[in-house]
Task: structure prediction
Amino acid sequence: MSINWFKYSSPQAFYPLAGKMIPWFVLLATIFAIAGLYISFAVAPTDFQQGEAYRIIFVHVPAAWMSMVIYIAMAGWAALGLALNARLSAMMAQALAPTGAIFTLLALVTGSLWGKPMWGAWWVWDARLTSELILLFLYLGFIALQASIDDPRRADRAGALLALVGVVNVPIIYFSVKWWNTLHQGSSINMGAAPKMAATMLMGMLLMALAFWMYTVAVALMRVRCIMLERERSSDWVKELSVTTGGKS
Amino acid sequence: MQWASWSAFFNMGGYAFYVWFSFGLTALCVVWEVISLRKRSKAALRISKILAQG
Result:
């Protein structure tokens, strides 16, 4: 059986499909979050060096991963929108940006809350911290740039260029702990090397990362539906929908 | 189980402020994002309904 994917590339067709997908991603996010929090607080042992403060890792590392993953996804959708002149792709990029910015902010704040008791400083101008702060500015710049251009198609193109130029920052964040001497510790997980942390800690971190990932898909779909409604305000399908749902849902 | 009592759990080995602030802020962001998206969707549909009936 072949699926005609192009059928779903129009907002009108994708809107109800996204609506059906959202509850499933919410359910998955909830299950992963419950399992992840249970391991984070009830199963994972106390760290012999950092005591209980290390438990911040279970939100800090997944939030930092998501901040980078979402940026790459956003830039990918933006590039697709630019190359194919596809409306839906550009809307997906726009829908991901605020969630990416939130995870970046969370990575920075939880990092600060971890740094204070462990390093004795809320903030240091270290390569990892600084490049992550630049990531926050890239997200905010993308959002502000799109908001400042009235014509949505032009806003999409300008935003896409900014998103693509900013991709260069992602490997800088990722490799910063290798390329420079940083106060920030090395990668928690390395490809091709056995994890240095206890299996339960690793499990908790991965489950929380999966929870954040599923959450991101759910809220990005929720937001892309809002963007569709706003951009296609005067089209027949949105008007019909607003009347049949009574402007409520 | 890691904890001798509930108060030991809430105390987080003396790091309560840092640990609970981190998890609390994350939860707050999730709740805020979902509520604001619900409101945004309702507002968009309300405006389209006015346009449709106008």
Chain A has a mean pLDDT of 91. Residues 21-44+53-187+195-244 of chain A form one domain. Chain A has one domain: 21-44+53-187+195-244.
